[in-house]
Amino acid sequence: MAGHGAARPMVAQAGTPLRGTAPIPGDKSVSHRALILGALAVGETKITGLLEGEDVLDTGKAMRAFGAGVERIGEGAWTVRGVGVGGFQEPDNVIDHGNAGTGVRLVMGAMATTDITVTFTGDASLRSRPMGRITDPLALFGAEARGRRGGLLPITLTGATNPLPVQYTTPVPSAQVKSAVLLAGLNAPGETVVIEREATRDHTERMLRGFGAEIATEATAEGHVITLRGQPELRPQTIAVPRDPSSAAFPVVAALLVEGSDVLVPGIGLNPTRAGLFDTLVEMGADIAFENRREEGGEPVADLRVRFGPLRGVEVPPERAPSMIDEYPVLAALAATAEGSTIMRGIKELRVKESDRIDAMARGLEACGVSLEEGKDHLIVHGRGPGSVPGGATVGTRLDHRIAMAFLCLGLAANRPITIDDGAPIATSFPSFLPLMRALGADIREVGARETAL
Ligand SMILES: O=C(O)C1=C[C@@H](OP(=O)(O)O)[C@@H](O)[C@H](O)C1
Ligand SMILES: C=C(OP(=O)(O)O)C(=O)O
Question: Which homologous superfamily is 10-26+242-453 in?
Answer without folding.
Answer: Enolpyruvate transferase domain (3.65.10.10)
